[in-house]
Amino acid sequence: MNIHAIVAIYKFEMARTFRTIWQSIVSPVISTSLYFVVFGAAIGSRITEIEGVAYGAFIVPGLIMLTLLTQSTMNASFGIYFPRFTGTIYEILSAPVSAFEIACGYVGAAATKSVILGLIILATSWLFVPIQIAHPVWMIAFLLLTTITFSLLGFIIGIWADGFEQLQIVPMLIIMPLTFLGGTFYSTHVLPPFWQNVALLNPVVYLVSGFRWSFFEVADVSPGISLGMTLAFLVICLAVVWWIFKTGYRLKK
After folding, report:
1. Cβ-proximal residues to 184 (8 Å cutoff; 6+ apart), any chain
2. pLDDT (tens digit, 9 = 90+) per residue, 210-229?
3. What distance in Å separates the CA atoms of residue 185 and residue 237, rounded to the nearest whole number?
4. Least CB-packed of 15, 93, 157, 240 within 10 Å?
């Protein structure tokens, strides 16, 4: 394995993040803090608790997951799309670097940015509400699996997209609505039975539920099912990335 190539791509992507730190880090943290103020403080004062957890604390895992899903996707999609846009992707493809090593560099950097962002938001949430993490190892596991999975998804979108507008379509019109409907601000148990069953068709429900269970040991679905679904999404994304490099889809013209 060409470790030097992976590290070079990884460092380049991380350097781009720190050159745009206001957009990459500060802006998402401020946006999420506003959610804490609006939903945690304003609405939380009227909703005492859900399933034995104070409402302000209950929404913290959902808000972290909302940021992780959108930022992982957007970071990875822009990271691979930009060299395609400028034509420098051909320098990488002609270099002695395998598809696996290219994906490791871009996806690893995007996942690292999202993990940093998630930990900053978690630290920020302690300024608003007291939080205890019941299963920190599982919390880190769900955090890593989610960021890697959605960074792979963003990598796929970055290769598929033909313009900057298409880069925004999936994160803004699909992932964010699914996250809002996936139990970010509520438990699906409060929904009528019919809509509880409909909610199970939303894959984000399993991600939010598993992540929230690692904090409070309350979940909409079994933690084992959440972990299985997360791993299934990861395998699907890995298979699609493998197919892209095998066929040269949108890379070789």
Report:
1. 59, 62, 63, 65, 66, 208
2. 999 999 999 888 999 999 99
3. 27
4. 15
**Residue 56 is inside which H or E element, if any?**
helix 55-58
Which residues pair with residue 49 across a beta bridge? 54
d(CA 117, CA 29): 7
- Cα gap 180→39, rounded to integer Å: 13
- Distance of CA 67 to CAs 4, 27, 63, 135, 237, Å? 30, 11, 6, 21, 19
Strand partners, 50: 53
What is the model's pLDDT at position 17? 80
pLDDT tens profile 21-36 = 888 788 888 888 788 7
Which amino acid, one-letter code, is at 35?
Answer: Y
pLDDT digits (tens, 9 = 90+) for 80-115: 888 888 877 788 878 788 878 888 888 999 999 999
Which residue type occupies 125? Answer: S
Which residue type is seen at 219? Answer: A
